[in-house]
Design goal:
410 residues, alpha+beta, Helix Hairpins, HSP40/DNAj peptide-binding domain, four-stranded mixed beta sheet, three-stranded mixed beta sheet, 17 strands, binds zinc ion, repeat, DnaJ homolog subfamily A member 2
């Protein structure tokens, strides 16, 4: 398991002391320096790299334990403490859950990770998306304990757990049946899987050695004009902080509440309005209260008919475009025409009314025609089909005699 390559490059034994390593490096560097030995460029680089690692006690320790991969994972950058190295190697949280995956997958294979993002759903009105709004959101978030600087205790009080050598996991043999046992990983009970221990008396009293504390934080969410449903607003690095890893983002996911009047389709707005027959035929005037409180006086001149289901557009009265709010989509109005009640006018008035409409088509009534009544159609209780069914069972002769009629009735 132990990797020896860097020692071999420098031609020293694994346990060699600093002096030996330095001496050997100097000798080899002279020998293979590109000025003297132009064909040995790579060899010189290897020597330099091996020395860089082995001459640095921290990097050397990582190399001895995790090999080249451990060094390449950024462990040798010198800005992290050994504790950070462990949490980085084993994923965020550095503890039990991150440790399981990291340990099983081979040491140092994982890149230093980010914490999880926190997603908040924020309900907003269409008015907010039209006008823009700033909302304050209170967030409970875990932050590095400032009392101990995220160490969990006084400097030096945190020590690597001996039981698991700082890994947080132990491999134990479990007997399945006599003679057959299985190697399993379990979290180290000495350190609860964290890989480190702090003496009770040295523990930070603010975070109780947990390194993080909960904090209430106010996020100011700017809902810009024209933002869309499901649009995300990111707060980089504002999610929970964990020791030794980069905090994730807080993601605000906008959720538009349904609006009583308007439906939105990208930058366009749609609405439906009911008008009477007089407005449909003789000119129309309606007031639409817009999302910013303005009243639009919508006029349609007499002589232009509005038919049921017609859709008309008002240019530039839709939603503002995101990041270009002076440009707006259109407002589309769909018209439903409400017809008058039965008997809304006397027969005499109806005759007068009819005189202004285009004349009826001339009707030729065949001699053998038969008068029938129209009934209301009820989709749940279809009277005409039940009557047809009855005819079939009781009046078969009649039906056979007049097949044309039965068709017409249906
Ligand atoms: Zn332990
Ligand atoms: Zn603390």
């Amino acid at each position: 398991m132990a990797e020896n390559k860097l020692y071999e490059i420098l031609g020293v034994p694994r346990g060699a002391d600093e002096q030996t390593i330095k001496k050997s490096y100097k000798k080899l560097a002279k020998e293979f320096h590109p000025d003297k030995n132009p064909t040995a460029g790579d060899k010189f680089k290897d020597i330099s790299f091996a020395y860089e690692v082995l001459s640095d006690s921290k990097k050397r320790r990582v190399y001895d334990q995790y090999g080249l991969k451990g060094v390449q994972e950024g462990v040798g950058e010198g800005r992290m403490s050994t504790d950070d190295i462990f949490s980085d190697l084993f994923g965020c949280g550095g503890g039990l859950f991150g440790g399981l995956a990291g340990f099983g997958g081979g040491m140092g294979r994982r890149k230093p990770t980010r914490g999880e993002d926190t997603v908040h759903h924020l309900k907003v009105t269409l008015e907010d998306m039209y006008n823009g709004k700033t909302t304050k959101l209170q967030q409970s978030k875990k932050v590095k304990c400032s009392a101990c600087g995220g160490l969990g205790g006084a400097e030096g009080a945190v020590v690597r757990c001996r039981g698991c050598r700082g890994v947080g996991m132990k491999i134990v043999l479990r007997q399945l049946v006599p003679g057959l046992s299985q190697q399993i990983q379990t979290p180290c009970e000495d350190c609860q899987g964290t890989g480190e221990v702090i003496n009770e008396k040295d523990r930070c009293t603010t975070c109780n050695g947990k390194k993080i504390i909960s904090e209430q934080k106010i996020l100011e969410v700017h809902i810009d004009k024209g933002m869309q449903n499901n649009q995300k607003i990111l707060f980089r690095g504002e999610s929970d902080q964990m020791p030794g890893c980069q905090a994730g983002d807080v993601v605000i996911l906008l959720q538009q509440k349904p609006h009583d009047v308007f439906q939105r389709n990208n930058d366009h707005l749609h609405m439906t309005t009911k008008i009477g027959l007089a407005e449909a035929l003789c000119g129309m005037d309606i007031i639409v209260r817009h999302l910013d409180g303005r009243h639009l006086h919508v006029k349609h001149p007499a002589g232009h008919i509005i038919r049921p289901g017609d859709i008309k557009a008002i240019a530039g009265e839709g939603m503002p475009q995101y990041r270009n709010p002076f440009e707006k989509g259109n407002l589309y109005i769909k018209f439903e025409v409400t017809f008058p009640e039965d008997h809304f006018a006397s027969e005499q008035v109806l005759k007068q009314l009819e005189s202004v409409f285009p004349p009826r088509p001339k009707l030729k009534i065949p001699k053998d025609s038969m008068e029938v009544d129209l009934e209301e159609y009820d989709p749940d209780h279809n009277t005409s089909s039940s009557r047809t069914g009855k005819s079939y069972s009781s009046d078969e002769d009649e039906m056979q005699g007049q097949p044309g009629l039965s068709c017409a009735q249906q």
